[in-house]
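Q: We require from you a single protein entry containing the residue sequence and its fold in token form, and nothing else.
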Amino acid sequence: MARAHAAAWEAIGAELYFYAPSGSAAVADDFGGTECSSLAALYAAAELVDICAPTPHHLNLARSAVEAHRHVLCEKPLSRSATEGRQMLALAAAHRRLLMPAHVVRYFPQYAAAHQAVEDGRLGAMAVLRFHRSGATPQRPWFTDDNASGGLILDQLVHDIDQAVWMAGPVATVYASENRSERSGAQAQTAHVILTHRSGAVSHCRGHWGAEGTAFSFGFDIAGTLGTLTYDSRKNTGFEMSTTRGASPTEDGFMPDLGYFTNPYEVQARDFLQAAQTGSSPRTSAEEGLYAVQLALAAIRSVAEHRAIDVDDEGDHS
């Protein structure tokens, strides 16, 4: 993930500094940056901080960065627990620093366009939303350590949980199921999270970590009272809209090809930079990042307890 973020910062002309317990020299060389010998040296050199470390380290890194009066972009999920997330928000507020969770899917053109269509009322009131995401099981061991990463639901499906909220609003109940298998040393995991929104809309979020070589794919199917919007990365580079109003002469039922847009990591970096420099609101707030964590944790609890979790009545599942 550090390389994806570094490429985005390089693309917008940022002067790059890197620190990690190991491996930062190679990344710095690849992106024409400078390796720092310590966090203190990093904070002394850099004006903004982008945290791409494993989730268990987010709180401590965010704390040291905002205490050094640096604005922070933090890779998702914002935190491993709701308690840690609230601490991060409180620290940022106390030091008057920007804390932005890197929910980069909000910057993918397909999802951004879908959100705009929903906001414009082109699909009517939300009814049923389906999101899917699939890829190979991450190779670094901490990802498959549930205590460290939160597993598939918190690390991967938090993207689609956030999308469901972005499209259909706050959630009343969460129900989730999960299946894990292992054969000849290869691990596979599938999870299905059902969100019932306060509006009555229902979102289905399905995630999969498969064997090595599993192709990465993602997509959505959003249905409202006036039409549907569908995208599937496995089939095409655009998405199809069907509404009760019919296609306009310029749309012909399809949206333009979205395969050649600017790198979403770059768009995210520019949004963070603008918010840090001008005080504007970024596309994803720290509060939204925390809410996505809370819902993912509710889903994990639902899997463990085999029941639906009432989001309002049963706390924040920290």
Observations:
- The longest strand covers residues 171-183.
